[in-house]
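Researcher: I'm preparing a figure for a lab meeting and need a structural model of a single chain. I don't have an experimental structure, so a prediction will have to do for now. The sequence is pasted below. Please return the structure as tokens so I can convert it later.
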Amino acid sequence: MAGAFGIDFGTTNSAVVEFINDRFVNIGDLDGNPFPSVVAIDNLTEEVLCGREVRDRIIEIREGGEFLVFESVKTYLAEDRREQLGERTITPEYVATELFRSLSARAERIAGEPIGEAVVAIPVGMTSEKRSSLRKAARAAGIDVQSFVSEPTAALVSHADSLRHCKYVAVFDWGGGTLDISILELQRDCIIERYNIGWDKAGDHIDKRLAEEIHRRISDKLGINAAFHSISPNERQILINQSERCKRRLQQQDSYDVIIGHYADHENLVQSVSQHDFDDLIRGIVSYAIDLLIASVEKAGLAVKEIARLIVVGGSSRLTLLQKELKRQWPDFSNIIFPEEAEWDVARGAAWLAAHPGSYRTAESVGLILADGDYYDIFPSGTRLGDAKSQLHFGLVEDSPTATFLFASKNGTSHQPNHIGELHVEAFGLRDELICLDTRISDDLVFEAAARSDSKPQETSRKFGFNNLKWMYEIYGEE
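Model: Understood. Here is the structure written out token by token.
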């Protein structure tokens, strides 16, 4: 029997889980941990190295200068970043493909089969361009993306059996690239997204802040008259890598010595950082993250006391200061779940959904605000993903060279639609002129609209996309 795969393609680490015979199997590296999302390419031989063997030697590899090293590639997907290696152009999509290949090869060694298809978990609000780039990268590695799912929703799916008694659950997923927060409602065998928000300040941002602070201290001590951003990119990245290591150690010990072999024309530098100093440095970031959590509950139309469980996952969730502040500010600390294997939860939820396809419905309606102010549903709440296609025709209400469509969403808890964007289309302004509007929700979970006047050529069509829809997951699927 073939298994179903879920992939958490992370900024710092990537996890793969297979769901087979009603159980989850973690596909880890040689140490049984998630696969580090880092790639190194030899400048001479063009040999590609991925994962743990690169992460464990990252400082040495960078200082040696014999490899092109790529970290946090998910952050740069769909961006025009290029590195030249001989006649080969290295793009973020190419790097992502190499990571997917390594994940699939690891799955073949552990599960006995490569990853043919998978559900892939993504951050809240990931752009349609990044989703498309991620899908292309997976396809180039031989992996068909069945669908995407938001990372916090996938984390909840992995705990669904133990949360059946809960009505409302919050997920706080703070990883390397983003903080993703979801407020979710459980109804029988459905998970309904009530409110989602993402923030781009996470583990990578904290590492950079710490590196900048260490740079400041070193500069003050040695009289270096250079801003952090003016240091060579390779030396900056080495200091950021050392800062990430320091951050992890400070969750277990009171102080840590950051050792740098070469930096800003100086050799063998040592800078001590205490846990107290580190906590002071990130206090504002942690406070804002918790404020965002509280505000998300309120945006969902709920009181914090109505949240039966708070699930806290992601690498940055291990920060000592975060856990202290949650204990101080959350009404009932006993209702907070810090999973023992938090690094696998998102991939497990994705694997479950891969094993139960066809379970996606919209958790809010998507439509138009008409000229008279009325709201018109294009796709009502509860629309199946596969049924979300529509073609509509409209007439202009005034002589105008432009037809404007105002798109909005609406959920069951709000009386007013929420404006999500608009689309402007060239027109002649004729009385009987028809404007064609084609809409659909793509496999990438993006609402897409294209419009044109029947009196204008096809190439004048204009397009609109919205990538932050809320979803309802029938987690046990249908027979």
